[in-house]
Write a structure and sequence with these properties.
homodimer; 333 residues; mainly alpha; Farnesyl Diphosphate Synthase; two-stranded antiparallel ribbon; 17 helices; globular
Chain lengths: 333, 333
């Protein structure tokens, strides 16, 4: 077990048995009688990874005293939606490796990856419908809508170097922070815990916490795509530049450059048939300044998330939520 | 207005005002505040076409006395799910034209088409959650799962000339008949109509009717892909052979051929860099025999569907359901 796994295991120790229940639900749900489909589902079960979104839902429940019998099911639903977005993302990005395993679009093809993503979405919705209250289904259908719109906007904003920071954050937020925020809010607000003014405030706190941590997570991801070592990150890097995505660290490097350098950056993005665009960016500008600025913004977001969580009653789960912010900032994988 | 539109208008006259209500729901639901998304949604609104699935749901409601205030919403949900599958199908098939309009994957790209399909799925689920009873959501999440599995199996069965007719029907059924069957069953069984033994039988009748008509529809579609005129069909034809899909008319032609011809058929499917594979199939074998056999099977299915519907009390809606079977067989578009 690597150092990072030890750290994560410590963070989720307050919800260890709930996480185990979540695994049981996932094992049961991510199956199908069709042998062809089962073969693919076995393959993607190796993408499951850290399950940070499910863990955050459970920690939010514990930290706000909302945990119910149905929380592990909700955590599984969130993880299945996340898995669906990963499978579709890999098609969109033309990615090759995810968590050191060949992506579905590589192992089979794009067709199968689109269908498998659809399958996971539909199974996630189906599972959410088994919950006593439709609240979770409603939140997740709205959240999935926002994720799609964020990705569509990102897709239309490719190669746009006039993007403002607020546009980047809105799009990156809709793409990533949205689901993490929904996970945290659901954990704290799921109706079985009953309505009270305090519960409502907890829900707002956890939604804000999730948004900030989620956006920080995406910013770190964008920095890793630009600077990370594929061996450590465990997935393809440099895909943003190949795909024309103008991320915060690049935007910051661009703002920080003179006109000649800006032109060179744009050229690296747009010149046909260029390979290793991310590497070439390092040749034409000082990417490290942009990464530094972006990481400072991520730190600011994590600090605001921690401040929000510190309002909750003291508990091991609350402390874990605070620490997860730092974990997000420090990850190199 | 073309002759086919006049025919269809006659068939759906028993549900004219319910169809108008369905349009209002669709107009309201297929929108988004994001200008980029709205632009794409405006584009795909031109794919809406015949709305046969929504019409069948409403006719099933009328023919079984089950129509409620919520039927137009259910019809809209069904049409949105269908639209989502169309948008994803066009990615899968690499199609260029749908209902004489450029496909999303052509007008924009595959990325956007995947996301827009996801968006439509999620909006459809969101809309189904506004219904009083979760029955519709449950049926549709299960139906969407089956559609995905059908497509996955079809994808893994490409180039398999040892496919049996029952395998073809299972896969084609999961892909197409499933949603049509669910539409018909929902129309007849939606719980607001209350439970009774008769209602239960109506539900079974309509599910069987929908399955048979839906499978016939897919068989006709496969024949049109092989023999149809793209001008009349209104979408790309010949894509099945390009994509390695072994459909019933081709299977029948294959069974009907000697070993040399079979080898030639397989070659047309598999030889790299061949263009116009569907046209070449006509050169190497007598495709018309296969089409004839497949159409006879479609006729058999439509007859069984009609027999099932004739058990219902006499009404204009019931007669329309019978006539729609013939309409499916006679379409050349």
């Amino acid at each position: 077990m690597s150092a990072k796994d030890v750290v994560l295991r410590g963070l989720i120790s307050p919800i260890k048995s709930l996480m185990e229940e979540t695994q049981v639900v996932l094992e049961r749900e991510i199956t199908d009688p069709s042998p062809a489909a089962q073969d693919m589902l076995n393959h993607i079960s190796r993408f499951r990874g850290k399950q940070m979104r499910g863990a955050l839902l459970l920690l939010a429940g514990e930290a706000t005293g909302a945990t119910s019998d149905e929380h592990p099911t909700m955590a599984a639903v969130i993880e299945m939606i996340h898995l669906a977005t990963l499978v579709h993302d890999d098609v969109l990005d033309g990615a090759e490796v995810r968590r050191r395993v060949a992506c579905v679009n590589q192992r089979w093809d794009n067709q199968v990856a689109v269908l498998l993503g659809d399958f996971l979405y539909t199974r996630a919705f189906g599972l959410s419908l088994t919950l006593k209250n439709p609240y979770c289904s409603c939140v997740l259908s709205e959240t999935s809508r926002k994720i799609c719109i964020g990705e569509i906007e990102q897709s239309t904003m490719r190669y746009h170097f006039d993007l403002k920071q607020e546009d980047y954050e809105r799009i990156a937020g809709a793409k990533t922070a949205c689901l993490i925020s929904a996970a945290c809010e659901l954990g704290a607000r799921y109706p079985e815990a009953g309505y009270s003014e305090e519960r409502d405030r907890f829900g707002d706190d956890m939604a804000a916490y999730g948004w900030a941590v989620g956006l920080a997570f995406q910013i770190v991801d964008d920095c890793l795509d630009l600077e990370g070592d594929p061996e450590k990150v465990g997935k393809s890097v440099g895909t943003d530049a190949e795909d024309g995505k103008v991320t915060l660290p690049i935007l910051c490097s661009y703002w920080d450059s003179d006109e000649a350098t800006r032109r060179a950056i744009r050229e690296v993005y747009t010149k046909p048939d260029l390979d290793k665009r991310a590497v070439r960016l390092h040749d034409v500008c000082d990417v490290s300044r942009g990464v530094e600025f972006a990481m400072a913004r991520a730190r600011e977001l994590v600090d605001s998330a921690a401040a929000r969580v510190k309002e909750l009653p003291e508990s091991a789960a609350r402390d874990a939520l605070v620490d997860i912010g730092d974990y997000v900032l420090e990850r190199r994988w």
